[in-house]
Structure formats: C-alpha cells, structure tokens
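FW: tagging you since you asked about this chain on Friday. Here's the raw sequence from the shared folder, copied in full. Didn't touch anything.
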Amino acid sequence: AELIGKKPPYPWWPKETTGQFLTENVTGGGLDLNRAERGYRKKTGELFYVALTIQNVRDRETNRIKLRIANWVDITQRKTAEIALEEINVFNLSVLENALNPIIVRNADSSIRYLNPAFEKLTGFTASELIGQKAPYPYWSEDQTQTYLQRGLNGFLQIFERDIERIYRKKSGEDFWAQVTNNPVKDSSGGLIQHVAMWVDI
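HL: got it, structure written out here
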C-alpha cells in the first residue's frame, strides 16, 4: 500500500544517489536487459546492497515498453566486505606513503610494484622510473649486481635473508649502506605473492 503507484524517486533510494539513479533510469531505460549493483536504504534507514537485473516487457504490436521487471539479489555481505577491504588498503597505503623509512614492494617475479616517497628521496629514483622493473635494479652498484642476483633471485620464491646490510647506489652515483628488513607476503597455500622490504640508511 505504501509503494503501489509510486514513481521515481523511490523511497528506498538514498538521497545522496537519487540524482544518479534518476539519470540511470533514463539512459538505461531503453535497454531490454539492464544489470547493476546498487545501494538502497530500508525503511529503518539501514543501508543494503543488491545485484539488480531489470527486464523490459514490450508490447508486441507497438514495441513500446509496458512493464519493467526488476529482480533483486541481496549482496550486502559481499559488498560490505569489499568496502572494508578497500578502506584497509587505503589505510595501508597512507601508512606506507607517510613512513619515514624507505619501503619497496616487489612481486614474485622480482618486478617492483610499489615504493614510497622516502625511497624516492633516499635513492633519487622516482616511482615512475622503477615501477615494473625487474632485477637487476638500477640502484644496485655494478660490482654487486651478480652477487645480489645470486643471493636474491635464486632463492626469491622460497628463502629470504630477513635482516641484511647492503650497499646500494643512488641515481647520482653515490654509494650508501642500508639495513634491509625483508618480509614475504604469502597466500593461504603458502605461495609467495609479494616481498616487502624496509630500509634504514646506515
């Protein structure tokens, strides 16, 4: 009785997304099959999420839309988990970005995935110069490259020297020593996903 005959905007649409939903209803209304994920609000004000499938029913003679049938699947639990994970990732990135010590993250194939501003400041290399690079890295000095390749890559997938001291080379050519703390990141089966290293300039 509360909803029969109602036209958009509907009472379960959150106020902050009403304009967006109105636009989507107009632009997507002509599609015979439309799918989307939306956040709605219960009468209590509680937010929930649905996977929405909308099917148009057309008049056989005029081909005009007679009805729009919407099927909802509650995905609140999954969506809430995704949002929480995204918030965690944003928080972790903020922590890394603001860390005083250089931090570098490498993938299992040795390619550089991330480095923080402190790493850029110490080495002189920018993220754009290093992201995606595989060993040997440009901050390795030429006379140490073979040693680092043998010690680092031969055991990269299995064995890590957790705390080591190494000599590296800045972009300017100046050598410096760093205390390196290595931490492998593994999946549930024990396989290596990433390798996180924090440096301390010594």
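FW: The mean pLDDT is 81.
HL: agreed, and Residues 38 and 50 are 6 Å apart (CA to CA).
FW: great, closing this out.
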